[in-house]
Design goal:
Radius of gyration: 18 Å
Distance between the termini: 40 Å
Strand order of the largest sheet: 1-2-7
Structural class: alpha+beta
Largest sheet: 3 strands, antiparallel
Strand content: 25-35%
Number of strands: 9
Shape: globular
Order of helices and strands: HEEEEEEEEEH
């Protein structure tokens, strides 16, 4: 911990996901790359592993440019907990979050409409694969 500094924690959660899927899904028998898809509460991150970790040396995160070696992880969309609002005749997303409690409407705890609810209605989530609550 003596050598730890804040710049080494950039996207540390998603970086842990990259290491996890690289160790569990990448095959030494196949030459196919693995694409990581990490939908969290407020963002969705994508990454790629093809036998080695891909790094970038500059990234802009939340409007701030950071020059520090880090895994190449790109935030591409809102997360499942991002709230949905109907404004001016269309749905808009976030930046507010439904949070873990009460969570999106589909959690059944009286929460607000969120991206997860839209994914459920559109058939992108299969309830039979989730624990019964």
């Amino acid at each position: 911990m003596e050598k730890f500094c804040g710049s080494k924690a950039i996207l540390s959660g998603p970086a842990g996901g990259v290491v996890g899927y690289a160790l569990t899904t990448a095959s030494t028998h196949s030459n196919s790359p693995v694409i990581g898809f990490d939908m969290g509460g407020t963002s969705t991150d994508v990454s790629r592993y093809h036998g080695s970790y891909e790094h970038v040396f500059e990234a802009t995160i939340a409007g701030v440019t950071i020059q520090s070696p880090q895994l190449d992880i790109n935030t591409v969309a809102a997360g499942g907990g991002s709230r949905l609002f109907f404004r001016a005749g269309m749905f808009v997303v976030g930046p507010e979050s439904a949070g873990a409690h009460p969570g999106p409407v589909c959690y059944g705890k009286g929460g607000p409409l969120a991206v997860t609810d839209a994914n459920l209605v559109l058939g992108r989530l299969l309830p039979e694969y989730f624990p019964k609550i």
